[in-house]
Amino acid sequence: METFMGGQGLKFEAWNISRLLVNQNQNQNKKYFFHTSFSMINILLGALVVVLVLLIAEKFRKSSISFLSKSSHSAKKQLKSSQEGLPAGLSRELLPKHVAIIMDGNRRWAKNRGLPSMMGHNAGARSLMKLVPICSDWGIKVLTVYAFSTENWVRPQVEVDFLMKLFEKMLSKELEKFMRNDVRVSVIGDSTKLPESLQEWITKVTETTKNNSKLHLILAVNYSGRSDIVQACQSISHKVKDGLIKPEDVDESVFSQELHTKCTEYPYPDLLIRTSGELRTSNFLIWQLAYSEFYFDESLWPDFGEREFVKALSSFQRRQRRFGGQDKDKMGDKISKQSNSN
Ligand SMILES: *[C@@H]1O[C@H](CO)[C@@H](O)[C@H](O)[C@H]1NC(C)=O
Ligand SMILES: *[C@@H]1O[C@H](CO)[C@@H](O)[C@H](O)[C@H]1NC(C)=O
After folding, report:
1. What separation in Å is there between the alpha carbon of 93 and the centre of ligand 1?
2. 185, 211, 212, best to mutate for ligand 2 pocket (most atoms within 8 Å of CB)
3. Would the CA dihedral through 299, 300, 301, 302 be positive or negative?
4. Rounded to 10 degrees, what is the CA torsion of 98, 104, 109, 114?
5. How far apart are the first and last CA of the chain?
6. Residues 93-106: pLDDT tens digits?
7. pTM metric for this prediction
8. CA of 85 to the centre of ligand 2 (A)
9. Which of 5, 178, 246, 284 is the most exposed place for a label (fewest CB within 10 A)?
């Protein structure tokens, strides 16, 4: 480095570029720069060298990952890319196809901060919209979320009105993103008495996203598992009465075709997540959850992010799914085939 004096030094520098790249030692670079050149021209030449070094370093960095593979950071990155975007430790083959979530804890989250419940619901909506692209990127096919149950109407009117507006705002605001990310949206539950403008947005978003296929986002609004079963019974009764089917033809497969979840190819959640430490299913998908793995997280829904989701998925992947005592693969295949053929 001491020999650096103008033009000759430049040549010397060119020789040493590869060594500099390995060292990546910018500090040293600056040090010799000030030690050795005092004339204006040398300062300019020196600056040129620094720029060249940086440019070449950048090119090297981009064109060859192996060049940097010694550092643990890029080693992690490589592991990630071999899993096609999945975090280390998760396996693609063992991912759930359908994840259902009871998004609990918005109000407590707000209360803990001395905020009105509405702020908690806002934060909850943001939390959901962060999870949607994650599910889509990692290859989960269906995400069903419990947004509003038939029991939630007893909440203060102002909060109910706010929630209805929030659903509407979310649907209108996110439609473009759903299209860009190939997300299909469906709404399950009894929406016939929801505010008209919300119903219009539900129709618009579900129709517009109908052909999207990467992720199916199912929003349960005014949903009740029992009501769903009851309306399925009514529908089947009408069909029997009209002579369309015989009573003895009614089996599980016929029945599941009358439930709201008939909208998806994978109606049975592999994994149910409930946040905020509550250990109940609260009338959510009660028919469909028969063989689901349950995962309960202590965090409140607005705090549930990628890290917590990875924990839930890891827990799911460590479990041996038994489907009522039978071997996981055989029975699992049977169950998913049943649901696919419906
Ligand atoms: C919510 O769903 C229940 C059960 O289907 C229905 O009786 C009720 O009218 C619905 N309420 C509104 C406001 O949509
Ligand atoms: C969905 O696909 C069908 C059949 O290809 C087509 O007729 C329809 O216009 C598409 N709908 C939307 C909203 O893209």
Report:
1. 39
2. 211
3. negative
4. 150
5. 75
6. 999 999 999 999 99
7. 0.74
8. 30
9. 246
